[in-house]
Amino acid sequence: MVDHDCYRVEDLITAKAIAARVEAMAREITDYFQGTDKLVVIGLLRGSFMFIADLVRELDLPVEVDFMETSSYNDSMESSREVRIMKDLRGEIEGRDVLLVEDIVDTGHTLRHVLTLLKNRRPARMLVCALLDKPSRREVDVKADLVGFEIPDEFVVGYGIDYAQRNRNLPYIGVVRFNGDD
Ligand code: IMP
Ligand code: MG
To answer: What's the pTM?
Structure first.
């Protein structure tokens, strides 16, 4: 458990459980894209940086890595529902196999926006992989093809995921609990 001034972080998913799940997901992705000449793995910054780093190391495929940054949270805990592209891809994806890597699918606005944008660029095949999914929070009908863990409606941090830019470096995933809330 990590203690901050006004909140603490309670363990939810251990580093060991994450590693096992990442390995299993990488096996599924490797099977799915077997024979590809090049897979472009796209990480959505910043939350997916740790996940993508671990995931690509387990992929037995020719891989290129690219990043896109979206913004919707403005350091708060509530999605603004308006998705802005802060940084676009460096490379072209037309005719390429694409794996989109997201940290959490929450309301779904981010994923829907990015999927529409990327599909317009006409990739050959596209697979979406999300480490976490909060299905009970969904506001738009969108789904990742592969999900690491389904979690309840809780605000989580760690393994790349932040609260107001902090706690990204935790090697596990935990729930933010405000002092005085219980
Ligand atoms: P959505 O557009 O509401 O689906 O939100 C997606 C983005 O919000 C994710 O990529 C995360 O960056 C952020 N997010 C959603 N839930 C959490 C959370 O519990 N902790 C930290 N960030 C979150
Ligand atoms: Mg994100």
So the answer is: 0.94
